[in-house]
Amino acid sequence: MQVKDMEQVIDNVRMQGLENHVAELEIQGFTTIKRVLSAETVSKAKQAIISRVEKQTAKEVDLQTGAGFEGLTYIPYLLYDDEVFESILMETRPLALVTYLLGESALLSSMGCHFKGPGGDPLVLHSDNGNGMPAPFPAYSQVANVNYALTPYSREAGALALVPGSHRYARQPRFDEMQLSGDQTNTSATAMNIDPGDAVIWHGNTWHGSFAREIPGIRMNLAVYFCRQYVQTQEQHKGVVPEAVLARHDDARFSTLLGAKQPYGWQAEGPDYRLMMRNPRGLFD
Questions:
Q1: Contacts made by residues 48-55, CB under 8 angstroms, sequence distance 24+
Q2: Global pTM?
Q3: pLDDT tens, position by position, 59-77
């Protein structure tokens, strides 16, 4: 553990007034920050996602009825669809908690929307350590999620569900523990009743899923998923970020999140030893 890096992370948490949120991450495995996104930002993000959905499906989206969109559809790789997603990626308070969980060298693994209409099946409870990571999981977080509500969350509206304290189980849930419908519903699962613009951040071990939507309309979120530098990202960003996107950000953290300091994935050119020398040495760098 690098003491200097740990002190920087703690100082940033204090500067942002996030001490209680760190306590919640430690105790229950997740925390909610209210009103992270402005109404304008939420509106822009929703419009960008709707534009993608309509282009991909050739169907018009009716947010009030959800007609033509039953159940859950995942909309991936949203970062480059609109500048609003760049600003959301860099929101300071959620990013400070991600840094606490994953260190300064964390990568953006993916950014997408769980676009949910009425009906369909719930998304069963799981840990995001689902990439073949064997149990027992380490106590420290290797991945982390920031889930922004873009429409109101409630159980009947298909809300995000989390199991408090499950990050300490250090394993995936069993079949009888992962259900969110019927007689086998995990009664420990908590529905996140939150408003548009709120953000839920959780430790990568924490069990989570989402309930089926029981009422008309569309539930929209923005799931921003992060990982430690040595974990394979879900989306490819290193080496493919448009120059115009990089030019809009003079913050080195932005390029780091998109793989600029990740030394692996070389081809015939071989390794970049300068980057390898900068590999993280502890939990917070």
A1: 48/78, 48/81, 48/82, 48/84, 48/85, 49/75, 49/78, 49/81, 49/113, 49/115, 49/150, 49/220, 49/222, 51/81, 52/78, 52/81, 53/115
A2: 0.96
A3: 999 999 999 999 999 999 9
Q: Name the strands in the sheet holding 160-162, side by side, starting at the edge strand that comes first in the sequence.
A: 123-126, 208-210, 160-162, 190-191
Q: Is the pLDDT of residue 3 over 70?
A: no
CATH number for the domain spanning 52: value is 2.60.120.620
**Domain presence at residue 90:** yes
Q: In terms of residue numbers, what domain contains 159?
A: 3-227
Structural domain count of the chain: 1
* 12 lies in some domain: yes
For the cut 60, the answer to whether the pLDDT of residue 271 exceeds it is: yes
Chain centroid to Cα 65, Å, comes to 27
The answer to the question of residue 45 being in a domain is: yes
Q: Which amino acid is at 12?
A: N
